[in-house]
Amino acid sequence: MALRILLVEDEPDLAHWLSKSLSQTAGFNVEWANDGLLAYKRLSVEEFDAVILDLGLPSMDGHTLLSKLRAEGNLTPILVLTARDSLSSRVQTLDIGADDFIPKPFMVEELIARISALIRRSRGRDKPHMSCASLTYDSQTKCFSLLQKTLSLTPRESEVLRILLQKSGEPVGKVFILDRLSDTDDELTADAIEVMVHRLRKKLQGSDVQITTLRGIGYCLEPINET
Questions:
Q1: Which letter does DSSP use for residue 184 in this model?
Q2: CATH code (residue 39)
Q3: CA 76 – CA 156 distance, rounded (Å)
Q4: 161: domain range?
């Protein structure tokens, strides 16, 4: 279940080195965008676990990209690479929505540690319990309950539901789910995800939570609003 990272960097040599280092050292699935506008377009339609963002970019600079994403409600964890080490620059970067920053030059081990910590926090791994309406998940027992009764799920169904619950209220794409479920022993397909979501819908029937399909985008786990 490789974590999917978008690296937004306009220097090809640095981008190549970083992509290779993050992939080999941490097992990240790193994709590269070499300008801000391209990154903005990708982040508008794709799901990533985190973004590593350089500020000095063509087409759209890093500050503008960061501001636009946050203004539109995109909460993807963003770590900024910066050569600007003044206090005012660091404060400005955090104020407009960066989750963390690391000054150049840096050690790749520190970058991995920082980005991993951001992802853990964003995915709720540090929370012992997650819930959406009466659906709850206990991270210690790895069990779901619905309407105070244990929900019987296969391991794959449990993983899909956990991913949806971590991002409850937000759209989750099939590619995002596939990236977290695929492994060397079992290559899953988009059709398999559809089947698991169909089964989960049946198991959630009659409760106060549902999985809705957002055509062309993915799925969203949300409470049912009774009128």
A1: T
A2: 3.40.50.2300
A3: 24
A4: 129-223
d(CA 35, CA 38): 6
For the stretch 39-93, pLDDT in tens is 999 998 888 999 999 988 999 998 999 999 988 888 899 999 877 656 667 777 8
Whether 31 and 7 have beta carbons less than 8 Å apart is answered as yes
Say whether both 90 and 152 belong to one domain: no
**Which of residues 107, 122, 137 is at a domain's end?**
122
Q: Are residues 102 and 80 in the same domain?
A: yes
How does pLDDT run across 5-29, given as a tens digit for each residue? 999 999 999 999 999 999 998 889 9
Q: In the chain, how many domains are there?
A: 2
In a shared domain, residues 114 and 139? no
At 99 the three-state DSSP class reads coil
Residues 6 and 135: their CA atoms lie apart, in Å, by 32
Model's pTM, two decimal places? 0.62
Assigned token pair, 34: 């070499």
| Residue pLDDT, tens place only, 98-117 | 888 888 888 899 999 999 88
Label the pairing between strands 129-132 and 135-138.
antiparallel
In a shared domain, residues 144 and 112: no
What letter would DSSP give residue 177?
H
Identify whether residues 99 and 152 lie together within a single domain. Answer: no
**Which of 99, 122, 145 is the last residue before a domain boundary?**
122
pLDDT at residue 125 is higher than 70: no
CA-to-CA distance for 177 and 3, rounded, in angstroms? Answer: 11
Alpha-carbon distance 55 to 36, whole Å? 9
